[in-house]
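Hey, can you fold this?
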Amino acid sequence: MNPTPSAPRRPRPPVGGYTANDLDRLPNLPPHTELLDGSLVFVSPQDKFHMRAMRVLETCLLQAAPPELEVIREMTVRLGLRNRPEPDIMVARAEADTGLGQTSYQPADVILAIEVVSPDSEARGRDTKPSKYAAAGIPHFWRVENDNGRPVLYVFELEPATRTYAVTGVHHDVLKTSVPFPVEIDLTAIERRR
């Protein structure tokens, strides 16, 4: 009789929770593990809407970003000792590139953070992560939602006195903006197979 394989062993949290440096040291973490308030957050598999939204946004941003900025997909931002969230896409200063072994960015280097909200990440994508990005001083935040198969993109800008985001636009078919740099994105492309 073959023994039943044991379930994967989850790391045991240290007293006080994990730190930002632990994400680089813990063995066998699932891809795209985040750290929020000292707790590890394991990301569920993406749905097709999420994948297409990321592809369309990344492609358009890569084409529009000036050379002094870099478009980065699925890397973490160190927001202090106990927080290292992973935006779906971010735009950072190219000078912050430390090489191919780099695993995170500092918030001062991030110009734009983007979250594509999934059913399992609504609270994190709408509340937890944006409030942390704003408190860290990231000047621009975009949130993409699936409204019955139709994308809705919310654009936020940092209000520096309160370190909170203010909505500057809600876009359904096309996003056209001049900040943080000029870009036009056909959001209906998320609905179409390419």
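Oh, and this one too while you're at it.
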Amino acid sequence: MGRIVRFRRKKRWRRWTTAKGYGVKPARFARPPKTAPKTWARAWHETRPWIFLIALVTAALVYQSPGFYEPPGFLQGEPMEVEGTFTRCGRGRGRLCVVDGDTFRIGSRTFRVTGIDTAEMRARCPAEAAQADASTQALQRWLNRGPFRITTRLDEPTDRYGRTLAIVKRDAPGGGGGATEDRLADWMLREGGARRYDGGFKGGWC
């Protein structure tokens, strides 16, 4: 009797090459959404916080530095009209007098012109004394040229010396064509030996 030989069936290995073979559903990748075209409304909505922040910082700067920057019109008080002859402050002075190149008095009130700085009368050297005298004379000439207006911020801020910080100007002569206002600070920068002052280091005059 012959020997029975059984042949084993060769096991075939499955190749796990697809997600389906593991019983996992294939991933479905969503298409990226289409970007909407940029409109003026959308641009305004995106930039509005930055505009608000810039306006807030500017307002804070103006409010905290009243002696250096002229406040916008809606923050200014009613202008005070002034007319009269200004003398130099000292013994026998009148109601209107000039202290130095950026300060003058009207009765008991002392006004400091915003945006400029001039040499001090209490000079540290002969050069500063000469410049202070020239600036004081220049301010006196401008004030005695005719009526002018004093404008302050609504809360009428003062500096550390108690002087009211003021914008001083008058209507420009002639009116049409050129500038409509004659600003004291601008005139003192051109003609009175003043320096522009923005709150930083003043510098010496000697």
